[in-house]
Amino acid sequence: MSPDPDEARRGSRASSIPAAQNAELHARTPARPTRLLTRSNRRLAREGTWTWTLPALAARLPDGRTVTTCPSAGVCAQACYARAGAYRFPAVRAAHIRNLAFVLDDPAGWETAMRNELRHPRFIGAYVRIHDSGDFFSDDYLAAWLRIVNAIPGTHFYCYTKEVLMFRRHVEPEPPANLRWIYSLGGRHDQHIDLGLDRTADVFPTENAITDAGWNWDHDSDLRAAYGPTPIGMAARNIPQAKRRQGNRTFGEWQHEARQRRSA
Q: For residue 59, is it within any domain?
């Protein structure tokens, strides 16, 4: 029996539609990063620290999704160093978006890839900063990182975070021995930070302001915040617009002012 021409045309149209949709979807899907940990931050690279990075504050993915990567950001969003300078270069932004898309679209695959990469001998005894920019944007994402850290005990991990309440729930009860975290002032959970008990960092307008306040200074070494005395002060980066917004106050003082205004 000869084939029905109408049926053949219908089959042709049916098979071509998914192919076109798949091609469009593929074009909008960022390529998977070949290496997850880098030394692209020159300041951290001088110390031999590896970094994992997401877009700062929020990002729009090629498929149109908008994802908040720093849910508890406060005034820090108005003076964030990771939203200026080299972080705005197209290639840098694209790399960070590829990282975020990998985490969102294939969390199990991303976790496996991160574990496999960290098992390389170069990471034995090495330091890894989780988030050169971005933060722990969900409970599931934080849980994945905790599994990774526990699986790689020979590597030292540290992070800055404004997700104070999330860490209170999921990290502090049973923290990995090879993980240090620093609560960073300038976020919406500042009021839950105990400067006497918590490892804490704040951004000061100048280096002199750090010493005048009696805080410890990072002395251009990021590892001091994680492994040195606390609280730790950092001088604001030389970004004119951000420095004008911050003025002569620390991020913590700035956030306190903002909270008082909201209360009033």
A: yes
C-alpha distances out from residue 29 to 51, 64, 80, 96, 101, Å: 23, 10, 27, 14, 8
Going by C-alpha positions, the residue among 83, 180, 75 that lies closest to residue 134 is 83
Residues 182-206: tens digit of each pLDDT:
999 999 999 999 999 999 999 999 9
Backbone angles phi, psi at 156, to 5 degrees: -95, 125
**Please, what's the b/e burial string for 182-211 (b: 16 or more CB within 10 A of its CB; e: otherwise)?**
bbbbbbbbbeebeeeebbbbbbbbebebbe
In a domain, 8, yes or no: no
Which stretches within 106-198 are classed as H helix? 107-118, 139-151, 164-170
State which residues form the domain around 76: 31-263
- Asked whether residue 5 is assigned to any structural domain, the reply reads no
Q: Which strand (E) or helix (H) includes residue 129?
A: strand 127-130
Amino acid identity at 159: C
Q: Is residue 65 part of a domain?
A: yes
What DSSP assignment string belongs to 176-224? -TTEEEEEESSBTTGGG--TTTS-EEEEESSHHHHHHTTPEE-TT-THH
3-state helix, strand, coil in the chain (%, to 5): 50, 15, 35
Whether residue 13 has pLDDT greater than 90:
no
Q: Does the model's pTM come out above 0.70? A: yes
| Total of domains in the chain | 1
